[in-house]
UniProtKB/TrEMBL annotation:
Its main location: membrane. The chain crosses the membrane at residues 12-31, 43-61, 99-121, 149-170, 206-224. InterPro entries: Cyt_b561_bac/Ni-Hgenase, Di-haem_cyt_TM, Hydrogenase_cytochrome. Residues 8-183 form the Cytochrome b561 bacterial/Ni-hydrogenase domain. Keywords: Cell membrane, Membrane, Transmembrane, Transmembrane helix. This is Cytochrome b/b6 domain-containing protein.
């Protein structure tokens, strides 16, 4: 904590967030280009898997506000928050609010399905996923169809996320973008400040983070080498 601000998002959470944005954007572009760009499209898929694996590990072993245990709320609490939000009276949180916390889980699961199906995809021309040999041709074609449909769903999820950020940023005056850039949020910002400030010690834990990143990278390498 510095001055009237609290360090909420550590460097690894912020890097995960912006790298995922960049990689998904580049994956979309390379997929649209086709041809030789498909090799980069595949690499983007590997990167997405690595990022997701790291974020899951960091969600259990990371800093206070990065942990799932800190921002995943019960269904009842989530519905209560939603009801208050529909009335424009939802409380503010330093870290993810109940809906935002579950949105993180949905995004991680969706990205896993998106990149995972890509491992078995086959464009029936010259680009194949690294695990296409583990399934039959017909199944590979069906998985490819799901891979494309899932991306349409991912675009919807991204659109909803952007709309939610704009709502909180512009209408509720929550500095979400600033927080994800600097890691800091105003100390008096949250109505749930007492509950949120279980710990303000969110030092990045560089060694732990780098070790988990290496584990994530090794996991992806091992997977695509099957």
């Amino acid at each position: 904590m510095s001055g009237n601000h609290i360090r909420v998002w550590d460097i690894f959470v912020r890097l995960f967030h912006w790298l995922l944005v960049a990689v998904i954007g580049f994956a979309w572009w390379t997929g649209e280009q086709g041809g030789d760009w498909m090799e980069w499209h595949k690499r983007c898929g590997y990167a997405v898997l690595g990022l997701v694996i790291f974020r899951v590990l960091w969600g259990f072993a990371g800093t206070t506000y990065a942990r799932f245990s800190h921002f995943l709320y019960s269904p009842k609490a989530t519905l209560t928050y939603l009801a208050a939000m529909l009335k424009g009276r939802e409380p503010l949180y330093l870290s993810h609010n109940p809906l935002g916390g579950w949105a993180v889980v949905v995004l991680l699961l969706w990205c896993t399905l998106q990149a995972g199906t890509g491992l078995f995809a086959n464009d029936d021309i010259f680009t194949e996923g690294p695990l296409v040999h583990l399934v039959g041709y017909d199944l590979s074609i069906e998985i490819t169809r799901w891979h494309k449909l899932l991306f349409d769903g991912l675009l919807i999820i991204v659109a909803v996320h952007i709309a939610a950020v704009l709502y909180h940023q512009l209408l509720r005056k929550e500095p979400l973008l600033q927080g994800m850039l600097t890691g800091n949020k105003p100390a008096g910002h949250s109505h749930h400040q007492a509950a949120d400030r279980v710990s303000v010690a969110v030092s990045a834990g560089w060694l732990k983070g780098l070790v988990l990143a290496a584990i994530a990278a090794a996991s992806v390498w091992g997977l695509i080498s099957l």
